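Long-time lurker, first post. I've been practising inverse folding by hand and with some scripts of my own, and I keep getting stuck on stretches where the structure tokens seem ambiguous. Below is the full token string for one chain I'm working on. Before anyone asks, I'm not after the true native sequence, just a reasonable design that respects the backbone. If someone could post their per-position residues I'd love to compare against what I wrote down in my notebook.
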């Protein structure tokens, strides 16, 4: 059984009739993740800027620039990715990562109708951080079906065990998207927010 992709999960969250992208639960995650002052960030204004329709290319235009654009995005994701143990990966989202996922979904789904494109933009803009906080995609990864069958049923309640800590400041509990949580199972792809106070915010890179 293939691992669910973040793009599929986010779209299925908005389109329940297209099938579920949910798994039962796994072991609670370890306590606070620490980010030191070297964590690289773009400016707050850039991180929080929503994707606009004017930025989104049609399929033909995107194909021409995709190789270079994809290289740029993957490089950006590398410094925004953090392993949390062997099975959890955190990807800190921003304007660029959301724009990339919009373009990729338009390409994969061969979207040409304006209403469909606008819907994708609205959906993926949910990944962009707001109010000075951080938005994160959490990937819960087990390689084999047997491992998933063993560990994923134990993960219910994971939302109570993910924290972010900046320096010596108090740990910040993650705010999970409640649409991804169920009574008996959670998705293998989760969308988290960490609201940051002024003392938690690193100095933006110049």
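-- Answer (accepted) --
I ran through it position by position. Result:
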């Amino acid at each position: 059984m293939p691992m669910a992709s973040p793009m599929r999960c986010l779209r299925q969250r908005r389109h329940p009739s297209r099938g579920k992208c949910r798994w039962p639960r796994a072991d609670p995650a370890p306590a606070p993740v620490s980010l030191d002052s070297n964590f690289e960030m773009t400016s707050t204004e850039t991180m929080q800027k929503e994707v606009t329709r004017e930025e989104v290319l049609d399929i033909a235009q995107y194909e021409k620039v995709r190789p270079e654009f994809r290289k740029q995005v993957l490089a950006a994701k590398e410094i925004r990715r953090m392993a949390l143990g062997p099975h959890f990966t955190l990807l800190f989202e921003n304007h660029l990562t959301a724009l990339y996922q919009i373009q990729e979904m338009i390409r994969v789904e061969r979207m040409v109708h304006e209403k469909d494109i606008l819907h994708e933009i609205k959906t993926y803009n949910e990944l962009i951080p707001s109010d000075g906080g951080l938005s994160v995609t959490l990937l819960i990864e087990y390689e084999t079906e047997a491992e998933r069958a063993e560990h994923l049923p134990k993960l219910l309640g994971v939302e109570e065990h993910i924290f972010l800590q900046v320096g010596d400041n108090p740990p910040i509990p993650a705010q999970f998207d409640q649409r991804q949580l169920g009574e008996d199972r959670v998705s293998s792809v989760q969308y988290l927010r960490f609201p940051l106070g002024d003392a938690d915010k690193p100095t933006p890179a110049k």
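A couple of notes from the structure itself: The chain has six helices and eight strands. The chain has a mean pLDDT of 77. Happy to go over any region you disagree with.
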